[in-house]
Design goal:
2 domains; 335 residues; flat; mainly alpha
């Protein structure tokens, strides 16, 4: 009977509850709505800043030259064309450059993450002489831009020698310039692109894994290597996934190390850097335009080439989106 009466008790409306709370409920609701609106505006602004340049490049890439100088054409091309993509594919030797970039980026990323994982685990779990000094060197690798040591790298690999043995035996040093070997040597020595950052991230991750897991493995008879491979690496999958994707993407778009060490290999980043010059040469030699390509059309070709460089990365992200987001969230919690 009591339950039946309680069910028939009329529910107070919002304004009635607000009146009894002395206006507190209205203030709370107003603050919640204001926070939601501000958050939506900020998110929209951030998304617009990221997407607007890409959308503009997509629109421009389908325009003919006359549309670029037509004040009535803003975002939608009046003369739709795919000729810009064909020209970019020709100037960049796209198929070969794409294959080379995929092979180099994948191999470099695997090599860098392998050695950085070993170094990061060593910093997190082992004690050795001058540990703090060597970790300070890792931080310096993160802070100091690679351009500051470009001259030293050039001279070192131009006159490469190991303990003077080459000059002693052959009478001259080895010129490794123009070869891919120097970059692989640097990556194997944790001096590649962003390697200091990967070491730091992996070290922080391993430091937050309880040592009891390793101690239990040691009690069960596992050695250091087996414990690392069987126990630690499976737990480190999130951070390794994040670092691998970062390494792959940064190597894909890198221009500094690619120009310095991989100049003889056709890569998308290096081909994109000279696409405007090739466009001018094509206009002069093939189309017989004395002044070369106009500024607007050159920018159009560069925008189209940029899209062709990042499209494979966007496709990769679409397939790896779930694992990438999960790895970032997991590594962020543990770091």
């Amino acid at each position: 009977m009591t339950k039946h009466k309680a069910d028939k008790t009329p529910q107070m409306g919002f304004w009635e509850r607000n009146r009894k709370s002395g206006g507190y409920l209205l203030q709370k609701k107003t603050k919640e709505i204001a926070v939601r609106i501000i958050r939506a505006i900020l998110l929209f602004g951030m998304c617009f800043l990221i997407l607007q340049p890409i959308l503009t490049k997509i629109s421009v890439s389908f325009m003919e030259e006359q549309d670029l100088y037509n004040a009535m054409v803003i975002n939608i091309p009046e003369h739709f064309t795919t000729a810009n993509y064909k020209l970019c594919a020709k100037f960049m030797d796209y198929a070969k450059s794409l294959l080379n970039t995929s092979i180099v980026s994948l191999s470099i990323a695997v090599l860098q993450i392998t050695v950085c994982t070993l170094v990061g685990y060593g910093f997190a779990r082992f004690e050795f002489p001058l540990k703090k000094f060597w970790f300070a060197c890792v931080i310096m690798v993160i802070i100091i831009p690679p351009q500051t040591i470009s001259t030293s790298l050039h001279l070192h690999f131009r006159y490469f020698d190991i303990f003077g043995l080459s000059k002693l035996i052959r009478g001259e040093t080895i010129n490794l310039r123009g070869s891919i070997l120097p970059y692989y040597l640097m990556s194997a020595g944790c001096m590649g692109l962003k390697n200091g950052l990967y070491i730091f991230m992996i070290r922080q991750f391993f430091r937050n894994i309880p040592k009891e897991l390793e101690e239990a493995a040691y009690v069960d008879g596992c050695g250091t290597l087996r414990t690392f491979v069987s126990i630690m690496l499976p737990d480190a999958k999130p951070i390794l996934t994040s670092c691998f994707l970062f390494s792959f993407v940064w190597q894909w778009t890198d221009g500094f190390y690619s120009k310095m060490f991989l100049g003889n290999i056709k890569l998308l980043s290096t081909q994109l850097a000279v696409i405007a010059d090739r466009m001018d040469a094509w206009m002069v030699n093939t189309m017989k335009v004395p002044g070369g390509a106009s500024v607007g059309y050159s920018n159009c070709i560069v925008s189209t080439g940029t899209l062709m460089v990042i499209i494979p990365l966007l496709i990769l992200y679409l397939f790896a989106q779930k694992g990438f987001v999960e790895s970032l969230s997991s590594s962020g919690i543990k770091m």
